[in-house]
Design goal:
Strand content: under 5%
Helix content: 55-70%
Structural class: mainly alpha
Largest sheet: 2 strands, antiparallel
Radius of gyration: 25 Å
Strand order of the largest sheet: 1-2
Order of helices and strands: HHHHHHHHEEHHHEHEHH
Length: 330
């Protein structure tokens, strides 16, 4: 009788958070597991959007039980199977619309590439900041022999010279992570070409489509799965593991507290290494987004022919014909 009640609806949510009938369906094999998770993703998406406080209440932190529980849900689901299939379903829907209306797909390409370009052009200034800061450090340390450097107007920030020296690695990381997709859009990455230059135009676009789906996205997903919990282990305690069940995670709620990593490699060195973990996730998200943009562009250019190659592509002008030729070759 209890089983009949539990299965009275296909998405019959139980008190312990499971969806019993769907769980039984998913246990029937690999294909049923995939189909079941796709169906469950629709329910999960609707439920998450209609109940944002369950996983976003921690944003307005008040150190309440509800805050702690919502934080743990956010951490758990951020690298979960449920979240993966929700994102997968959204990509399928967006892609289906794009395949139906190619002008909309071109809009995706322009939007994603434009975002990568704008972000990269802004973050690229980190290189100038890094160089200027290095000059200031050398000048003040060698000429005036100061042990601390203060920056700011009104609200002055003072750190040891070693802190500023180690912070240069952060600016370098900003360039590497936040400018990666910008460099991809600009064609700045060096490719190892074994067969690409000797195949037809349509075959090249097929290779690009294959590479974005089979190599870029899966690699980014794996990095996200490891990087997500790696980041949170340096922001809060107790730690949440990728192997923990939701019930086990929620039992940790009473003990949850913020524990942001502030340990440097040297006693007075840079102590905000948790920012590198955040950059890793930001980089991974950018790679996944641009993998979709690259797939859409390759599909459209293959479908519309050589005349559409580079369509809407916003590439920087170097002002040096020889340098632009070299960049084009790469």
């Amino acid at each position: 009788m209890e089983e009949d009640i539990a299965c009275s609806g296909f998405f019959a949510a139980q008190a312990d958070g499971t969806i019993s009938c769907l769980d039984k369906f998913e246990s029937g094999g690999a294909l049923q597991w995939i189909l079941g998770n796709l169906l469950e993703a629709i329910y999960n998406l609707i439920y998450a959007v209609s109940h944002p406080s369950l996983w976003l209440d921690w944003v307005t932190w008040g150190n309440t039980t509800e805050d702690k529980q919502s934080l743990l849900r956010f951490v758990y689901y951020g690298a979960s199977v449920e979240f993966f299939f929700v994102m997968f379903v959204l990509v399928l829907i967006v892609s289906a619309i794009g395949f139906w209306r190619n002008d909309i797909m071109w809009g995706y390409v322009r939007g994603l590439e434009g975002f990568a370009n704008r972000l990269g052009r802004i973050m690229g200034w980190s290189g100038l900041v890094m160089v200027m800061l290095q000059i200031v450090i050398i000048f003040l340390q060698r000429v005036f022999a100061v042990s601390q450097i203060s920056f700011g107007f009104g609200m002055v920030v003072t750190f040891d010279v070693s802190w500023w020296s180690e912070s240069l690695k952060f600016y370098n990381a900003l360039i590497v992570t936040m400018c990666a997709t910008y460099t991809f859009v600009q064609g700045g990455h060096v490719r190892v070409d074994l067969v690409y230059s000797n195949i037809s135009y349509r075959a090249k676009k097929a290779v690009d489509m294959f590479g974005s789906i089979v190599f870029m996205i899966p690699t980014a997903v794996v990095v996200w799965l490891y990087g997500w919990f790696f980041m949170w282990r340096h922001l809060m305690v107790p730690n949440v593991s990728a192997s923990d069940t939701l019930d086990k995670v929620m039992r940790k709620a009473p003990a949850v507290k913020w524990n942001v990593e502030t340990i440097g490699f040297s006693p007075n060195g840079f102590n905000a290494y948790f920012l590198f973990k955040m950059l890793l996730l930001g980089y991974t998200a950018l790679v996944m987004l641009h993998a979709l943009a690259f797939f859409y562009r390759s599909y459209l250019e293959r479908k519309e022919g050589m005349a559409s190659e580079g369509k809407y592509l916003d590439k920087d002008k170097l002002g040096d014909p020889q340098a632009e030729l070299v960049a084009e070759i790469h």
